[in-house]
Amino acid sequence: MIAWRGGGSALLAALIVAAAPAWAANIAIDPHEALYNLTLESAKSASGVVGANGAMFYKWGETCDGWTLEQRFHLRISYAEEDATDISSTVVTFESKDGLRYRFNERRLRNGEVDAEIHGEAHLDGPGKGGVAEFTKPEAATLTLRPGVLFPTAHTLALIAAAQAHEQFISRYVFDGSDVENAGQVSAFIGSALAPPGAKAAKPLNDPLLQHTGWPIRLAFFPASDSGTADQTEPDYELSMRLLENGVTQDMKLDYSDYVIAATLSDIKKLARPGC
Asked: Contact 59/85 with Cβ under 8 angstroms?
C-alpha cells in the first residue's frame, strides 16, 4: 500500500479473497509492519532547505473482511534562514477487501500544534462504479466520487497487477481522504522487474519479506477539481519506490520538486493473519 499521505506512503502470503477485484485475485499480500528512516536526499538552493531527518512507522494489517493501515511519521526540516519545522502525522484507515468501503482518520501536527484533523468514510456503489465520501472533520462535507475511483489498497493491488502484466504505464483516480477534496489522478510509470536482494544481503534486506520480485515505480500525484477531474498538467509531487509483489515497499523517495526526501527501510517484521 502506498503509505505516504500528504507526502502519500507502504504484509505472510494472504491471498486476496474472491470478492476482491478480478485483477487482484492472484496477488498474495504479506501483512507487515516496517520502520523507515527519513533523510534529505537533495534540495535546490532556492528552496532554503538545508537538512531533514525523521522516521516513519508503517503497519499494513489484515482482518477477515479488509485491510488496515496505521502510519505514524515525524519529520524535522531545517532551513538556511528560518527556524526548523517539525511535522508529525498519524493515519489510521480501513478498506474492505472488495474495494468498496473505506474509513479514514488522520491527525497532523506542525511544531507541536494541531494543523489538521480529518475523519470520514467513503463507499462505492459497485466495482467500477461511483460513490460518496462523507467527512465528519474538519467539518461535515459530502463529495461525489466518479466511476472508476479506487481507494488506496485497491490502487496498490492495481499497481502490482499491472507490473505483473508487464504494463509500463497506468493512470487511475484515487481517493485517500487526506484532504477534503475529490479523488486525485495518480499516474504510474513502471520499470522492469528487479531480482530480490538475496538472503546474504545486509539486514534488513535479508529478511524473508524482501525476498520477492519488485519493480521501480514512479507515481505522479495530480490534484482534482470539484468535478473530480484533473485540472493541471504538473503534479503536486512525485513518489519513487521499489514495490514488491507481496505489497512491501522496500524504499521510497518523495520529490517535491524543490527538495527530495528519502525513506530507507531500517526494520521490518511479518504480522499474523486472522483466523477466519
From this structure: no
